[in-house]
Design a protein that fits this description.
Order of helices and strands: HHHEHHEEEHHH
Bound molecules: FE2/S2 (inorganic) cluster
Number of domains: 2
Helix content: 40-55%
Number of strands: 4
CATH superfamily of the largest domain: Glutaredoxin
CATH architecture of the largest domain: 3-Layer(aba) Sandwich
Largest sheet: 4 strands, mixed
Strand order of the largest sheet: 2-1-3-4
CATH topology of the largest domain: Glutaredoxin
């Protein structure tokens, strides 16, 4: 618990923080270091100002999460598992984000985005880099404005019979 609190406060657990925690818990720093290097939710260096997570677990993977992650790597100019040089973005390809029926799932900080295929990943990254990705509603309206083709001829035919 104290490790999470320290990480929440500092953004990461560096050597100094590691030693402080060890002292408080009457352990050796190596005991804390082992936890930090073992558990992926703990980190020695802080993430970027905007942290992007992509789910890689099977349901999302089957729906294209690997391609989504590659698209975000390219658009945000940051490799998965790293922080961009200017510290603006970090990208993490990680296990389940608890929204398994709507994959590929992407999170930006604490906001979840569903069904993020490559095309949507490009839009999401564009909005993010322009500072316009404040909430999913804006993303959804931007996304809908791009949809101009009916899903199938049947649907467009049924629409025309209503008129
Ligand atoms: S499998 Fe992707 S959110 Fe659970």
């Amino acid at each position: 618990m104290v490790i999470h609190l320290v990480q929440d406060e500092l953004g990461s657990i560096d050597l100094e923080a590691c030693e402080w925690i060890a002292e408080k818990l009457e352990l050796q720093p190596i005991n804390i270091q082992e936890l930090i290097t073992f558990y992926p939710m703990l980190r020695e260096k802080p993430w970027g100002r905007k942290h992007v997570r992509v789910c890689r677990t099977l349901p999302c993977a089957l729906r294209g999460a690997y391609s989504t992650c590659q698209t975000l790597e390219k658009k945000l100019e940051v490799k998965e598992g790293h922080v961009r040089d200017d510290g603006e973005y970090s990208l993490e390809f990680m296990e389940c984000l608890a929204d398994c029926g709507e994959g590929p799932v992407v999170m930006v900080d604490e906001q979840t985005y569903e069904n993020i295929d490559c095309e949507k990943a490009e839009i999401l990254a564009d909005l993010l880099t322009k500072g316009k990705l404040e909430d999913s509603k804006e993303f959804e309206s931007y996304e809908q404005s791009l949809v101009t083709v009916p899903a199938s001829p049947k649907k467009s035919k049924s629409k025309s019979t209503k008129k």
